[in-house]
Amino acid sequence: MMRLALISLAALLPLTAPAAQADTAEAVTELIVPAYAAFATATAALDTATQQSCDPAVLAPAYHAAFDAWMAVAPLRLGPVEDGGRALAIQFWPDPKGLGAKAQKALLQADPAALTPDAFAQQSVAARGLMGLERLLWPEKPLPADPCPLLRATTADLARVAAAVSADWQGDSGYAALLQTAGEPGNSTFLSPTEARQALFTQIYTGLEALRDQRLGRPLGTFDKPRPDLAEARASGRSLRNVVLDLQALRALTVALAPDTPKTQAAFDHALTLAETLDDPVFAGVATPGGRLKVEILQQAVTAIRDTAGVELAAVLGVDLGFNAADGD
Amino acid sequence: MASRRAFLAGLAAAAMPKPGWAAVGNPAFLAAGKTGEAYEICGLSEAGEILFRQPLPARGHAAAAHPLRPEAVAFARRPGTFALVLDCVTGAVRHRLTPPEGRQFNGHGAFSADGSLLMTSEVVAEGSAGRIGLWNGRTYARLGEWDSGGIGPHDMKRLPTGALVVANGGIATDPGDRSKLNIDTMRPNLTLLSSDGDVLDQAELDAELHQNSIRHLALTGDGVAFAMQWEGDAAEPVPLLGLWTPGRAPVLCPPAEAEMFAMKGYAGSIAAGPAGIGITSPKGGAVMLFDTAGAYLATHRRADVCGLAALDSGFLASDGGGALLWVTAAGMEPLTTGGPQWDNHVVPVGMAG
User: Fold this and answer.
1) Which residues pair with B71 in a beta bridge?
2) What backbone torsions phi and psi does residue A260 show, to the nearest 5 degrees?
3) Which of A119, A211, B163, B244 is most exposed, with the fewest beta carbons within 10 Å of its own?
C-alpha cells in the first residue's frame, strides 16, 4: 500500500522543484566525510591501545568508541565501503552459520605468519573486524590460545581498512566529489543529481529495513521461538545502543539531506524515545511476552519511519525506490 | 571443444540477417520500459540506440521476438492473464493470447528456430504446477501443452538440438496476489524437454539450497547458465549463478567472498556471450561478471540495474533510470541515457527465447 502511495505522490510533484530543498553537498561534506574520518581516528586509537595492552578491561572503552564511530556510518552501503568487501571486513553481522567464529578459531592457533598485515588482509572477512574483536574480548568460552597476537592483527587491520575508506571519500577523485558532481561530464557513476539523491535516499530506506529486520528482527525471532541469543553485539552489551546510534545516524542523514521533512523527523523522534527508554540493553526481554511487546512496538515505529520517509522524504528529494528494485520477478 | 564450436555457430546464427526485422532497423534487442505513465516496447541497437518504439497497454515482464517476422510477444506481469503479439512496424496488436481456463502465463516464452512454434511458461493457477503452453507461431492458435516438470516455471531456452531447458523456479504462488505459498518446502529444478515435450533430463540443487529459486537462463553452447533468487535467510551467502550441461550435475559459481552479499540474494537477469556470463541485481544495484567457465571476474555497482544482454564484446545493461550501459570486466560506462525506465529484461532478437 505504501509503495503505491509513494509512487503516486512522487508522480504528482515536479522533479525540478525538490532539488532546491535537497542538499547532497551538506550531507556529504558536513556529515558523511567527517563521520568516516572520526571512525578512522577511533579505530587507530583502538589499535594503539591494543598494541600496548590486551587486557579486555583496558580495551573496552576504546572498543566501544570505535564501534560507536562505526554506527554513525554503518547504514551507508555505497562507495568506498563496498570496495573489496570492506563493510563486511569492518562488521560481519549477522552471521547465522557462525563463519566468523570458525575462521577465527583457526587463526587463534595459526602460524604468526598468517597475522602479518598483508596476510591478515587476505583472511576471511567473517573473521575480521568489530565482531571478531568482540569474540576475543568477551569470549563465550575460554579461548584455546593467547588472543593477544590475533587481537593486535585485527585492530591493525580494522584501522587500515577504516583509514582507506575515509581516504577514498576525500580528495578531487574521492567519492564525496563524485556525489557532488553528479551529472557533470566525466562522472559516469552518477549521471544526474537525481541519481546522487536517489543513492542517499536508498541508504536511508534500506538502512531502516535492515534495522527492523536484522538488529530488531533477529532477536525477536517468532513469538513461539524468540532468539535473544541472536541479538547483535550481545557479548559486549551493545545491542540496544547500536539501535539508538543507528536511528541517530539515519535521522542526521535525513535532516542534512532534506531539512524540511517534519513527519519523517517526528517518526524518528518517536522511535528514538521508545529506544532510549527501553530498559533492555541486549534484548533479553524478548523471551517474555511483556518484554517482547516493547521491542515489537519499537520495531513497528521503525517501520513507520520507513513508510513516512518513503512518501515525504522521497517526494522532497524527487526520487523513488527504483523501478526494478522495488518490483522483482 | 564441441561446446565451443556450438557456441560460435550459435553466434553466427544470431548475426545472420533477420529478414522481417530490417523493416524496423534490424534491432539487436527488445526491451520494455515506461516513459511518464506510458508503457512501451523498444527495439535497440547494440550501441543502445532506440530503433523503434511502440506502445504497450500495461507494464510487461519479458518479451519473445519472432525469429523471422518483426513480431514481439509481450507477456503481462504475473499473474499473467494475457500476452500480446505486437507488430513492431505498425504497433498494431495482432493477437491477444489468453491462457486456457485455470492457467496463467509466468513471464517468459520462446520460439522454435523456424518460428513455427511459440512455447510459453505457464502454471496451473491452483498449485502452480508448471506447463509449457504451445501456440502456432503464425496464427497464434493454442495447440496444446506439456508438463514443465516442476512447480512455477519461469524462463526457458531452446538448445541448438531443439530441446528446451525450463527453469522450474519451485515457488507456488497464490493465483490472485502472487504471494508465495511453499517457501519451506520449495524444490526448484532444471528440466530438459524434447521437442515432443518428453522429459529428457532433470537437475536439482543440493538440499541445503532448496530455497534458491532457479528463474532465468542463458545459452552457453550445449548447456545453460542459470540465475537464482534466494528465498532463505538473507544473511546466508549462497551462489546465484550455476552452469548446467544436460547429462551432468549442475555446477555452482560463487562470487569472491568480499562480494558475497553484493546481489542481496537476488539475480534478476542473466546473459552469456563471448565475454563470459553476467548476472544483475536491481535489489543490490550490481552487475556481476564471470568467465565462460563460471569463474568470478568482477562486480560493478549501478542502482536499479536489471536488463542484461551479451554483446560481441562485453554486455549491454539497462537500468530503471533510463540508461543503457556497456559493461566489461574492467568497468561500466553509459552508452545512452534519458530512455524509458527500462524494465526487467533485454531480449535478443534472432535467437529463441
Assistant:
1) B87
2) -90, 65
3) A119
Buried b (16+ CB within 10 A) or exposed e, B25-38: bbbbbbbbbbeeee
pLDDT for B6 equals 43
User: Looking at chain A, how many residues does it have?
Assistant: 329
In this prediction, residue A22 carries a pLDDT of 62
Q: Which three cell numbers stand for residue A82?
A: 563496498
Phi, psi dihedral angles at A49 (to 5 degrees): -65, -40
Nearest to A155 by CA among A16, A62, A262: A62
Exposed (0-12), middle (13-18) or buried (19+): which is B115, by Cβ within 10 Å? middle
Contacts of B341 (CB under 8 A, 6+ apart): A323, B33, B34, B35, B320, B321, B322
Cis peptide before A94 (omega within 30 of 0): yes
User: Bigger pLDDT: A84 or A320?
Assistant: A84
Q: Which residue has the higher pLDDT, B20 or B8?
A: B20
Chain B contact set for A214 (CB, 8 A): 235
- Quick check: B169 pLDDT over 90? yes
Determine the Cα–Cα distance for residues A321 and A319; give it in Å rounded to an integer.
Answer: 7
* Eight-class DSSP state of B218: E
Provide the mean pLDDT of chain B. 92
Q: Which of B34, B281, B306 to probe by mutation at the A interface, max A CB count within 10 Å?
A: B306
- Does residue B215 sit in helix, strand or coil? strand
Query: Is the pLDDT score of A269 beyond 80?
Result: yes
- Asked, for residue B65, whether it belongs to a domain, the answer is yes
pLDDT of residue B19: 67
Q: Is A221 helix (H, G, I), strand (E, B) or coil?
A: coil
Quick: pLDDT tens for B246-293. Answer: 999 999 999 999 999 999 999 999 999 999 999 999 999 999 999 999
pLDDT number for residue A19? 45
Annotated domain spans of chain A: 2-25+191-317, 26-179
- Residue B333 belongs to what domain range? 2-348
Q: Does B255 touch chain A (CB under 8 A)?
A: no
Q: What share of chain B is helix, strand, coil (3-state, %, to 5)?
A: 5, 50, 45
CATH number for B71: 2.130.10.10
Q: How confident is the model at residue B175 (pLDDT cuts 50, 70, 90)?
A: confident
Q: Which residues from chain A sit within 8 angstroms of residue B259, using beta carbons? A: 85
Q: Is the pLDDT of residue B3 over 70?
A: no
A26-179 has which fold? A middle domain of Talin 1 (1.20.1420)
Per-residue pLDDT at B5 exceeds 50: no
Between vectors from CA A292 to CA A286 and to CA A295, what angle results, nearest 5°? 100
Percent above pLDDT 90 for chain A:
88
| Cross-chain residue pair A329–B344, CB shorter than 8 Å | yes
Q: Does the residue B353 lie in any domain?
A: no
Which tops the pLDDT comparison, A122 or B19?
Answer: A122
Number of domains chain B is built from: 1
**Using the beta-carbon criterion (under 8 Å), do B343 and A323 form an inter-chain contact?**
yes
